[in-house]
Amino acid sequence: MDPRGLWIFVLFPILFASVQLCDILEGNSDRIRSLNTELLKVAEDASEEPNPSVYLALRLSNDHNLQKESQYLQRLKDAFQPNASSTPTPVRYHEHPSTGQLALYLLALRAACHDMEALEGRQLVTQLKLHLNKEKAQIGHKDKGHPITNYYQYSLGVLALCVHHKKIDEHVIRKLLHAEEEGRFVLHNKHSVDTEAMGGLAFACLERATFYGPELVANLTQAVERSKQKILQAKTAEGAFGNVGSSPLATQFLIATGMNPECPEVVATLIRSLERGDFQNALIKSQLLPALHGKSYLDVARMVCQDERGGLELVTSSPRLEPPAGRTPSIRVQLLVKQPPLLVPLYRNVLRVPLGSSLLDVLKVAERLNTPKRFMFETQNTLSGPLLTAVMGVKPREGERKYWKVLRAPNTALEQGIADYIPQDKETILFKFSPW
Fold first, then answer.
1. DSSP conformation class of 186
2. What pLDDT does 308 receive?
3. Cα–Cα distance, 141 to 214 (Å, whole number)
4. C-alpha dist (Å) from residue 42 to 37, 66, 276, 280, 341
5. Closest by alpha carbon to 421, among 244, 190, 288, 287?
6. Runs of H (alpha helix) within 112-262
7. CA atoms within 13 A of residue 152's CA, in its CB half-sphere
8. Residue segments in the chain with a per-residue pLDDT below the cut of 50
9. 355 in Cβ contact with 329 (< 8 Å)
10. Cβ neighbours for 207, distance < 8 A, ≥ 6 positions apart
């Protein structure tokens, strides 16, 4: 076959898929713009901690409100670099951000075309490199064998440095390659599509860099293909990858690696889920918006930030209609807390809560009740919402790889966080202290 004909043969599925994707996006431009506005409202909410993922989404959008984006960037700087800020605002982020938080902040700075060669920029790059070397060192520890955080954050750190065109220690890269090849991209003993997608984005970025030798580049190319196949194998009958929440990042990865004929179908599934209100978490929404614009985090590396046009405005929502006077509809939810190998539950109670309450709302109701055994729980703020860290005073000891697994009884793991999941009437929510 003529090589030119072979090239067309290989390229045709990609071009066809891209045309299909464009048709889908154009047909849903109003809904996508509405999502853009929702994230702009999140950015304007001063009661919420600034989230670099939200800023990334706003910058990767085709529509902008440059004034509000600039204001949000300043809030991010105040939170992550309080010593460099002239604004004496209270900071609620931990003074030592995790690998993932710092990586997202560096991606946000690249999306703002920030000069990373200035002193503050070089310090941030050095800080992230130190984070990654500590993660790598723990993976190599004979009693650990895993990162300090997880491979999702490890991958995100590698991606952030790569997008800034910074050379990364090859030992750091090879640890990540080995983890992917050995199938260690798991969450709670199950393959994590989110981690696979983030790792794949990191590999795809490194593959295009000019710092590394042919052997390492060949390994990166193989890893990209393995990640792609694993994500495609995780496709569900409903058209999602893994679950609805992991599909936005998986779609970003497929877009970044040249598109896939199945991707338009996935984008259509995401838009249907968006219309149903399946996406409540700001982090997931912020991963979704770039995908619906046909972009990924890799596009941040090419941003120029010149001659950008604004025009995106906040639309004042219609006032919420109050329910008719009378009794507020309510549901009954049972909470059941177990700590194996103990046979007797630490807590069991049926609560009546208003219809539409989140699981976090239910936990707060349980905590306020004066029952013989008072319910207690603790959470930790993360960029994806509150994370349950302790129940009935039980929490992992330092170095102990256990967590509170949340299930819809008898054994359906929740795919949403406690602030996003809405229990149904007569549902039993099981909390089980489990290894991971």
1. E
2. 80
3. 29
4. 9, 15, 20, 12, 43
5. 244
6. 119-139, 151-163, 170-181, 193-208, 214-233, 247-256
7. 16
8. 1-17, 19, 88-91, 93-94, 317-321
9. yes
10. 217, 220, 221, 224
Asked if 54 and 42 touch (Cβ cutoff 8 Å), the reply is: yes
Residues pairing with 406 in the sheet: 431
Q: Hey, what are 96's tokens?
A: 């030592």
Q: Are 224 and 200 in contact (CB under 8 A)?
A: yes
Amino acid letter, 135: E
- Strand, coil or helix: what is 312? coil
244: which 2 tokens?
């609805």
pLDDT in tens, 133-154: 999 999 977 656 789 999 999 9
Write phi, then psi, for 412 (nearest 5 degrees).
-95, 110
Structure tokens belonging to residue 2: 């003529």
> ∠274-109-115 over CA atoms, to 5°?
155
Q: Which two tokens stand for residue 359?
A: 């699981």
Dist. CA 177–CA 170, nearest whole Å: 10
Dist. CA 105–CA 118, nearest whole Å? 16
- Residue identified by tokens 């918006």 is 289
Among residues 386, 376, 388, 387, which one has the least CA distance to residue 346?
376
Find out whether 125 and 164 touch, Cβ atoms under 8 Å.
yes
Mapping DSSP onto H, E and C, the string for 107-132 reads HHHHHCCCCCCCHHHHHHHHHHHHHH
Nearest to 195 by CA among 234, 161, 221: 234
Contacts of 233 (CB under 8 A, 6+ apart): none
Q: Note whether 281 and 24 are within 8 A (CB).
A: no
For 86-131, the pLDDT digits (tens) are 554 444 544 678 999 999 999 999 999 998 998 989 999 999 999 9
H/E run at residue 353: strand 347-354
The Cα 377–Cα 163 span in angstroms is 39
DSSP one-letter code for 415: S
CB-CB contact of 98 with 83 (8 Å) = no
pLDDT at 307: 73
**What is the pLDDT, as a whole number, of residue 219?**
97
Residue 183 neighbours by CB distance under 10 Å: 11
**pLDDT number for residue 180:** 96
Integer Cα distance of 288 and 296 in angstroms: 10
CA 344 to CA 338: how far, in whole Å?
A: 7
* Spatial separation of the C-alpha atoms in residues 407 and 428, rounded to whole Å: 8
Q: What are phi and psi of 383, to 5 degrees?
A: -65, -20
